[in-house]
Predict the structure.
Amino acid sequence: MRRSVHIGFSLLTVLVLLVATAGTSSAHQDGMHILKIKAAKGGKPHGTNNLFSHGGAIEQTAKVYIVYWGSDWGANTAARSYIEGFFNGVGGSSWANSTTQYCQGVPSGTVQCGTTGLHPTNPMNELSGGVWNETTWCAWHSSSGNMSYSYMPYQPDAGAACGMNFVNPGNSGYFDGFSIVGGHEYAETITDPYPNSGWLDGRGAENSDKCAWISSGQGAAANISLGGNNYAVQSLWSNAFNGGSGGCVLSY
């Protein structure tokens, strides 16, 4: 997203998601996309115009690396278990499968890839990459060289502004923000790994941006089941939905 929003995060409590690039990548434009905090009244789909290729790369075979930075993570085993469970199970899910409709190797301006181009594969067990222990937004994603990565502070510090209890009430929704925000950045890192060169709409919104913080109606955030556990997620933009007009979906 284009504009940062400042909230009181501790810089000593940070999670960084690194999505490794498989093989060589095409030239890309460096940039950053930020997930803004949730508005008080929730959100709705950001426009009806579809994403289109900007001529850049997608992430074909994602491998997730998690870096925990700061002392709070060591003591909070429940948060780590929730985060690692989500990213260990999200690969291969129908929720993440909506990213497979996008591709690289097609002309700029392409809206529907069909079977042409190189597509994300939505593999299972993406967290096999590893986990390590090692502000001012919910999260953001960017890239360095051939490495795509996301930066996500400790979400409960921001409370409802970054997704706490957005889907689930009480204690069951305490970690909602981790999977809503983490999933947001994960999906964008697959379809626009080198920000602003992959799949965006005419206003610069990525597939997760267009469906952020929807609380009711089509595309409302909800739980998905991964590995026998529920995780709160937002919907993702699908160009194929609604006869090609596009829309926010939780499954594809």
Q: What stands out?
A: Residues 1-13, 21-29 have pLDDT under 50 and may be disordered. The radius of gyration is 16 Å.
